[in-house]
Amino acid sequence: MSIARFAPLLLLAVPxxxxxxxxxVATFLAKANVLERKGPLAMFSGNLKxxxxxxxxxxAQIRQExxxxxxxxxxxxxxPPDVGVKLSNRDIMAAMQAVxxxxxxxxxxxxxxxxxxxxxxxxxxx
Length: 126
Hints:
Blueprint: H1 3-11, H2 16-19, H3 25-38, H4 46-71, H5 89-97, H6 109-120
């Protein structure tokens, strides 16, 4: 079951306030694992909307942080390509699973995604 398959439709239905809340990586992974076991029935789960909304909200905030730093004359933490960033559900899960097991309860999803973007899109040295 691919979370990314339903992302375009479900992301439109997620309220922005829901996505703005912080979620520990441990919680995200637990919910994602339950969805994985549900297979095609996962698309009817409220947790799918919750996780997609979380990722969308996290990316929006990370993008805003990067643009604010750049506008303030500070170095950007990562430099995505001009065509934008395309990530699969595997990329997102890999970002969450990259957080050490001992840190997953106290690390939020936004921090995990930010760390992945920094690794994947380093800024050129000036």
